[in-house]
Amino acid sequence: MPNRKYKIAVIQLNLNDVAENNLKKCISWVKDAAAKGAEVILLPELYSSHYFCQSEDVDNFALAEPLYSTSFIAFSALAKELGVVIIVPFFEKRMAGIYHNSAYIIDTDGTEAGLYRKMHIPDDPHFYEKFYFTPGDLGFKAIETKKGKVGTLICWDQWYPEAARITALKGAEVLFYPTAIGWHPKEKEQYGENQYGAWMNVMKGHAVANGVFVAAANRIGLEKYIEGTEGIQFWGASFIAGPQGEILAQASHDQEEILIAEVDLDLQENVRQNWPFFRDRRIDFFGDITKRAID
User: Fold this and answer.
1) Which GO terms describe its molecular function (predicted)?
2) Greatest CA span in the chain, whole angstroms?
């Protein structure tokens, strides 16, 4: 029988360091989360380095790693040691000239339960991800693990209700969003509250519309490494929401933290029985959603 209740954790960190140090830091924090009872643990997007997409620089491709190398070896051993599921977002080198923004879902025995490649790739000022990442080609997935059935989407994916819907329809009980999002310092005063609010609201909306738990793990800290720029102030505020959008755990904007909450599948089923959005979907009239524009 599947687990009807299990605990999930999101880890919020400052990752403005070199790969070796970030790996050691994340291993330590995952151990702390497991010691606190977490059974499925999420790290922030591109955990192993600073957020290098602030510029278009071919030297940054050296930060990528082939599948099943450094990150997988380390976290596979850790997952097996701790008996937990770990979601590990990393910069994947698929082959020369093809790179992805990806995440391993590593099961409790250290095996790969699944691999996700970020589907939606942004190109905004200081978020120049299209220069680095090929769009994902594995589709949206619900991954069966020994703790539960989970879906992993990555950062920019969080703005797309279609991604959340498909992942939930495939049976995901939790939507996990490893994230790297922040303010441009010069814009924070004027736009910051609305930007952060929109980020929270859209994911809470995914929870409500799909009757799922949602967990987002963000970075914190000012990452300013390009001369003549103000950098990005990552706003933290990682959170876990329940299937009615209720906040179960919320992090600060500027502290490294572990958030833990319980996934209760009986609660999820009750919510879906009372708010039967899946039942009432008019799929016979949804064909136009696959068009770029309806014109």
Assistant:
1) acyltransferase activity; N-carbamoylputrescine amidase activity
2) 57
Residues tagged active-site: 45, 118, 155
Fold of 5-290: Nitrilase/N-carbamoyl-D-aminoacid amidohydrolase (3.60.110)
- pLDDT tens readout for residues 239-248: 999 999 999 9
Q: Report the first-to-last Cα separation within the chain, whole angstroms.
A: 49
What is the pairing mode between strands 85-95 and 5-12? unpaired
Quick one: which of 63, 58, 54 has its CA closest to 18? 63
Q: Could you tell me if 131 and 156 are in contact, meaning their C-beta atoms sit under 8 angstroms apart?
A: no
Three-state SS for 154? coil
Question: What is the distance between the alpha carbons of residues 207 and 83, in angstroms, rounded to a whole number?
Answer: 27
Using an 8 Å Cβ cutoff, are 232 and 184 in contact? yes
Global pTM? 0.97
Residue 200 has, within 13 A of its CA and on its CB side, a CA count of 20
For the chain, give every domain's residue range: 5-290
Half-sphere exposure of residue 274: CA atoms within 13 angstroms, side-chain side: 9
